[in-house]
Write the structure tokens for this entry.
Amino acid sequence: MTRNPLTLLFSLGIYVSLAGQTPATDWPQWQGPDRNGLSKETGLLQQWPASGPPIVWSVSTLGGGYGSVAIKGDRMFVQGAKGGQSIVYALNRADGKGLWSKALGASGSNDRGSGPRGTPTIDDDRVYVLTENGQLVCLKVADGTEVWQRNILREFNGRQIPWLISESPLIDGANVIVTPGGPRAGMAALDKMTGKTVWTAQQLSDEAGYSSPIAADVQGVRVYMTLTSNAGVGVRASDGKLMWRFEPVANGTANVATPVFHDNRVFYTSNYGTGAALLGLTAQNGEVKAQQIYFTREMQNHHGGVVLVDGYLYGFHNSILTCLEFATGKAQWRDRSVGKGALTYADGNLYILGEDNLVGLAAASPAGYREKGRFKIADQGLPSWAHPVVSGGRLYIRNQTTLAAYDIRAK
């Protein structure tokens, strides 16, 4: 890919951004600024034209993969597989043109679609990328120069999972958090500047799930939470000590959805006939304990994620879009919407990407399902599973080799 003159400015330490850009319009990691699928943007279209919002640009050279995009300042990052290599691309946010790309090792193949599954994480002048084969790489945002790399499966004795590593790295303070799934290393913290091991979760030997971890403070104790192959877990951020391990929310096939944390409570959900649970968390003497508040089979989320908006959870129960009351687990409504898919939230609405190539806009309201538009995208031969992103007045839809930006600003 050709180099852009802006690369020189970055190498000189000058931060370039779009005119009028504010931090609220960045989406620097998996599920956005706060890792919860919520955008703080306003001034967006409240109804779509019959043909959908206008397209700004589209690129179709990414190669295979299910990962979403990370966006900060004038550029964005996305992963793909081409020519047998797992690749990360840096693109110009304005027009989607390539700035640089870097091969990170052999790509992974799978009957459900080959290539990377994760989303890069941008932190200051570095971007962190985890491939489908467990290669964790720290690169310079400016030009892709490698800072360090480690293979978390090989180095922590983890085993590749059936549908390939799907995690998006978490940056928290000085560390990058990943889940190698090895013996006494179900989770690990690495120094984000050097890649050196800070700790491994000695009491956690679960194999990795397909989920990505989140960080939260529970009454003064920082914890990391995720779904492993066997349980919903929480470990202490300072040293990796296991705080809780809750097995009823995990199934034996694929645990995917990122946990949802709010007000000292964490919500886990998985599919394959399992369900969801809300756990209440309390801290005492530096330890955090978890106690079940409720368990429900009304939310069995596969891989499309769940968002929490004004006390209500929105996500797919199997293939049906569902609204649950967070505090009680009581179902408020269900609708088939645009079909089973993934979703994100912005400006009062749910942005939904159905796996059969339909994109929808619906009100985020417990009063009932109210659709505000839908449009179809081109079928790439595999399910459209990448999560949609709202950033800077645009909706980004990645579907295998193609990434498209749509203008969703209210005029």
